[in-house]
């Protein structure tokens, strides 16, 4: 019996407004798994951490991302990332 | 009569099939894999004509035949091809004994009435194995397996050779000692030093002297040299192997991930209905590697068991030898013993047992209602990865999986 597997915690597309001064996310709009038709919009209160990942560059699917751990005004936290290869924004738990 | 069905250059053909490499009219050699100085294992007649010999260093083989195409051994493909061979013959109603890669032995007596005689049976075997389509299949017939093996070696491609009982002695006498199965090099060297080079020469020695010098193995060879093969045909008992496979979303190169995947597959395999009345005697772990390569190891269990932890411990023993990142891993149980009644472990608190049993019942009900894909299990594959979605995957939980919910 063959099992097909799927990844946990895949990044989800997001629309991000940047703070013109810092160049960091200030407002994020994304769709959750539970309600894909009702996008969530949240304003970033603090960017808690920033890090850069350049990985798997020796494979056919390299990863180059800038991660921002954001705390929103509503109190939740989420990781927002900019994929430097796809040139697109995503959110990830 | 015993039929010895032989597919020459079987390892080469299996590897070529897996790699999509044509063999006809080309100089192709199969070489050992994962060794610093690989040697030629098998080669096509065209390669042999260019001076490529078995056992020759691959570098030397390429030097002597610049057009030589080289293939690496492909154990996974050999296994599949061997199973195809045995299943094809078993599909004809034969009870088949696998003797080696590309060799199957069967007793013809029971099948002859079904096919209208020995000739028709052999023709059906050749047809079934594709001899009419250019595949090299040879059939040897003899009163016992050894005689049949000698006959198969003398057969033409796609042909049959029969050695009758009355001509057996005359055929065997001039043959070199190397045709004897299980003759070790030391024994052959001693016999050669004594001037014994043929089966007839060995047979001419007094059996008591052979037994004094070489013991029981020597006596067995002496009997074979005279065409006496008491072993007979020991067909395998066809049993559906239990196979569990996991495909990774991307190549996996670390041992911990692979070990966890193998453990998971073993846990799934032991919950299959096949393991209800029997227990595996061996476990095979096969891996599909990047670059269309494969790797396989088979481990025999100390005692047949359905204890997933014990099987997994045995299966994990040689995983560090896998030479390349893995795309797919497969666990197979293909040898079986009757399952003995197992004594449950002492000391498990009753309430824990009841709780686990309750969750299992709930799991079975969910799967019965919503289908086998309704329950998923988290498998950590690279928990240390800096890319979050590479840390874990979801795998469907097998129906009837009795591992910890």
Question: What do you see in this structure?
Answer:
The complex is a heterodimer of chains A (93) and B (405). Helices cover 0% and strands 59% of the residues of chain A. Chain A is built from no helices and 8 strands. In chain A, strands 3-4-5-6-7-8 form a 6-stranded antiparallel β-barrel. In chain A, strand 5 and strand 6 form a beta hairpin. The termini of chain A are far apart. The model of chain A has no long low-confidence stretch (mean pLDDT 87). Chain B starts with a strand and ends in a 9-residue tail after the last strand. In chain B, 36% of the residues lie in helices and 21% in strands. Chain B contains 14 helices and 16 strands. In chain B, a hairpin with an 8-residue loop joins strand 2 and strand 3. The model of chain B has no long low-confidence stretch (mean pLDDT 86). At the A-B interface, strand 1 and strand 2 of A face strand 9 and strand 16 of B. Strand 2 of chain A pairs antiparallel with strand 16 of chain B, so a sheet runs across the interface.
Summed up:
The complex is a heterodimer of chains A (93) and B (405). Chain A has 93 residues and is mainly β.
What features would you highlight for this structure?
heterodimer, A: 93 residues, mainly beta, six-stranded antiparallel β-barrel, 8 strands, B: 405 residues, alpha+beta, five-stranded mixed β-sheet, four-stranded antiparallel β-sheet, 16 strands, 36% helix, globular
**Main sheet specs of chain B:** 5 strands, mixed
From the spread of the alpha carbons, the general shape of chain A counts as globular
Strand content range of chain B: 15-25%
**Major β-sheet of chain A, in short?**
6 strands, antiparallel, barrel
Name the average pLDDT of chain A.
87
Topology:
The complex is a heterodimer of chains A (93) and B (405).
Chain A: E1 2-3, E2 6-7, E3 12-18, E4 25-30, E5 40-55, E6 63-72, E7 77-83, E8 88-92
Antiparallel strand pairs in A: 3-4, 3-8, 4-5, 5-6, 6-7, 7-8
Chain B: E1 2-6, H1 10-19, E2 28-31, E3 40-43, H2 45-49, H3 58-64, E4 69-72, H4 75-90, E5 96-100, E6 103-107, H5 112-115, H6 118-128, E7 138-142, H7 145-154, E8 160-162, H8 168-172, H9 185-193, H10 199-203, H11 207-225, E9 242-252, H12 255-270, E10 278-280, E11 282-289, E12 293-300, H13 308-315, E13 326-333, E14 336-338, H14 350-370, E15 376-380, E16 392-396
